[in-house]
Amino acid sequence: PLEMSAKKPVPFLRQVVSVTKKIHRDPRFDDLSGEYKPEIFLKTYSFLDSIKKQEKEMIQKQLKKCQNMEQKEKLHQLLNRMTQQEQAQKKQQKLRERELSLKRQQRELAKQGKKPFFLKRSEKLKLELAEKYTELKKSGKLESFLNKKRKRNAIKDKHRLPSQKNL
């Protein structure tokens, strides 16, 4: 046994035997869990999309039946959030497909013996914007989109100008 001095008080919670600490590991940052590949992840959990679709339909039915205004508002917010998540997922999928197609093109050019050329971020954004405009033109919403953009820019410009009071 360990000899303790009588001069100083013994701590209230004295450790007699050292306890081994549990090591908590986070699978997101641990090498044991493997490498994250979004394509594999989406294939593995693709069944969740059908479940989400069923839940969305169920919420829409509940929204039609609901009489309570507070409950109706909550359901409406939930439905909006679900649709926004769905749209974001589609947008992400499009972006991923675009990147994959660019990679394929680069690989083919490399096979032909040409030096690979990687687009800058600004160039990617320009391509994305051009694609967005063509999509809006097809759907016929281009004019309304441009009007909204003009209004937004006008408001920004108005805020940047010095006020009449200062002159």
TrEMBL record:
Q: Which intervals of the chain are annotated as region Disordered?
A: 82-114, 144-167
Where's it found, cell-wise?
Nucleus, Nucleolus
Composition-biased stretches (Basic and acidic residues)? 94-111
- Any one annotated GO CC term: nucleolus
Q: One biological-process term from Gene Ontology? A: maturation of SSU-rRNA from tricistronic rRNA transcript (SSU-rRNA, 5.8S rRNA, LSU-rRNA)
Q: Could you tell me where the Basic residues compositional bias lies? A: 147-167
Pfam families linked to this entry: RRP36
What UniProt keywords apply to this chain's record, in alphabetical order?
Nucleus, Ribonucleoprotein, Ribosome biogenesis, rRNA processing
Query: Its biological function?
Result: Component of the 90S pre-ribosome involved in the maturation of rRNAs. Required for early cleavages of the pre-RNAs in the 40S ribosomal subunit maturation pathway.
State whether it acts alone or in a complex, and with which partners, per the record. Answer: Associates with 90S and pre-40S pre-ribosomal particles.
* Protein family per UniProt: Belongs to the RRP36 family.
Name the record gives this protein: rRNA biogenesis protein RRP36
